[in-house]
Design a protein that fits this description.
The protein has 524 residues and is an alpha+beta fold. It is built from 18 helices and 18 strands. It folds into three domains: 121 residues, Potassium Channel Kv1.1, Chain A, CATH 3.30.710.10; 130 residues, Serine Threonine Protein Phosphatase 5, Tetratricopeptide repeat (Alpha Horseshoe), CATH 1.25.40; 149 residues, Jelly Rolls (Sandwich). A hairpin with a 2-residue loop joins strand 16 and strand 17.
Length: 524
């Protein structure tokens, strides 16, 4: 018998071996002659009714439960029940489920999610967190073993222990719950204050996809405020990509990173690696002050009084990684020399280093850091000047731009006077969706040439890829200035592609084709 559906697919071939009534009657007569004793044995030798099912596979993709039974808007009663289960998962209320709760969810994924943080059918419990801050969480061995090779070895491996309660003091409860939610619900729920702890849990229990999501979250939220802490953690978790991203931020926004609270939370090894950094883009006096701040907090961690002696003790040899001889003389005289952290001999030798022809030998590194070399993106192919252009009168020149890689805008290159040397006052500003990210008011001197003159922000501003930012400048000075012509909508600058478009903030004529703000100065 060949059975097919109406579309001719999912075919099944059923073959039956049947005995006709006449055959059964004839065999019964023959067997009756041999007597009753042999009757039962002959009957047992009759060919049984049998069949064979052959399923013919097709190339059609199998449908999942959600495809076969699309979700419909549930009735009010069902909606209430679903919300109760979700609240139960969050609060672990351990309420008794309603009858046929399985019918509320059409897919195995949703039914499995009901078991998240639920005592129903739980065959193991975890006491998570340090003493005094523990939380008891239910688990289901099969689900956990499917989601983690560590749990599989723990529950079903050769050395598996049959324990009803497992203590995990080195993982935060919120992080453990986030990992369980991923295993049970296939959902990633990360928060800034728990993502590092979640990454630790994902690494410990070998849940690689959750760990990757944590790293992506950290890279997205990376800034100068948390770069030093994340650098320390990325080395601990052996995440080289995250480590590289941290170094990019620390190098470009070094002074912001060193002044952040997170810098004082790093370990000694990370402190040494930062102080050794050749490309650190910061004044050495800022590096020196940051090291003293770290030493004060480290004294508190070691339960030491924050005296000069103890600060120097916790810094150890890292003190000599600070390139004190490369400071400006004023910074050294008014800062490091009077800090008390240096011995009298060290102070005298450094002063001689600044002034004497025969310089003494120093334990401190005396070679200046290389820092970062800024790149310049020039968006005009030519420039010009006319007798009636370019005039300012306090009006705003503005342009929008976007990049395809993360960069750090350090400042703008601006044109100067076309009528000889002149001094300009420039207010520069960088915005994203109307929010000011950086601004500065400074002066620059124009020598009358068509060159561009750099104007810097106080700190480099981090620019994310594939998002338009607005660069603005208000100039005050000689009204007649050079201006750009033959502007380009896209410029390739090294490995960075920059796109330009007109800005509605521009009230002085600057646009893509011509005007001011000829250059973006950035680190990449």
């Amino acid at each position: 018998i060949l059975m097919v559906d109406e579309k001719g697919k999912n075919m099944k071939c059923l073959t039956f071996f049947l005995m006709l009534p006449e055959t059964v009657k004839n065999r019964s007569k023959k067997s009756s002659k041999k007597g009753n004793s042999s009757s039962s044995s002959s009957n047992s030798k009759l060919p049984p009714v049998c069949y064979e099912i052959i399923t013919l596979k097709t190339k059609k993709k199998k449908k999942m439960a959600a495809d076969i039974f699309p979700r419909k808007k549930p009735a009010n009663t069902n909606t209430t029940a679903v919300q109760q289960y979700h609240q139960q998962n969050i609060n672990n209320n351990n309420t008794i489920p309603a009858p046929n709760w399985q019918g509320l969810y059409p897919t195995i994924r949703e039914r499995n999610a009901v078991m998240f943080n639920n005592d129903l059918m739980a065959d193991v419990h975890f006491v998570v967190g340090p003493p005094g801050g523990t939380q008891r969480l239910p688990g289901h061995k099969y689900v956990l073993a499917v989601g983690s090779s560590v749990f599989h070895a723990m529950f079903y491996g050769e050395l598996a222990e049959d324990k009803d309660e497992i203590r995990i003091p080195d993982v935060e409860p919120a992080a453990f719950l986030a990992m369980l939610k991923y295993i049970y619900c296939d959902e990633i729920d990360l928060a800034a204050d728990t993502v590092l702890a979640t990454l630790y849990a994902a690494k410990k229990y070998i849940v690689p996809h959750l760990a990757r999501a944590c790293v992506n979250f950290l890279e997205t939220s990376l800034s100068a405020k948390n770069a030093c802490v994340l650098l320390s953690q990325s080395c601990l978790f052996e995440e080289p990509d995250l480590t590289q991203r941290c170094w990019e931020v620390i190098d470009a926004q070094a002074e912001l990173a060193l002044k952040s609270e997170g810098f004082c939370d790093i370990d000694f090894q990370t402190l040494e690696s930062i102080l050794r950094r050749e490309t650190l883009n910061a004044k050495e006096i800022v590096v020196f002050e940051a090291a003293l701040n770290w030493a004060e907090v480290e004294c508190q961690r070691q339960e030491l009084t924050a005296t000069i002696e103890n600060k120097r003790k916790v810094l150890g040899k890292a003190l000599y990684l600070i390139r004190i001889p490369t400071m400006a003389l004023d910074d050294f005289a008014n800062g490091a020399a009077q800090s008390g952290i240096l011995t009298l001999n060290e102070t005298n030798d450094i002063f001689l280093w600044y002034t004497a022809a025969k310089k003494p030998e120093l334990q401190f590194v005396s070679k200046p850091r290389k820092g970062l070399v800024p790149q310049r993106c020039h968006r005009f192919q030519s420039c010009a000047y006319r007798s009636n252009q370019w005039r300012y009168r306090g009006r705003c020149d503005s342009i929008q731009f976007a990049v395809d890689k993360r960069v750090f805008i350090a400042g703008f290159g601006l044109y100067g006077s076309s009528c000889g040397s002149a001094e300009y006052s420039a207010k520069i500003e960088l915005k994203r969706q109307g929010v000011i990210l950086g601004q500065n008011l400074s002066k620059y001197f124009s020598d009358g040439s068509s060159n561009t003159f750099p104007v810097w922000f106080e700190y480099p501003v981090q620019i994310e890829p594939d998002t338009f930012y607005t660069a603005s400048v208000i100039l005050d000075g000689n009204e007649l200035s050079y201006f750009g012509q033959e502007g380009m909508t896209e410029v390739q600058c090294g490995k960075v592609t920059v796109q330009f478009q007109c800005s509605s903030d521009s009230t002085n004529g600057t646009g893509v084709q011509g005007g001011q703000i000829p250059e973006l100065i950035f680190y990449a």
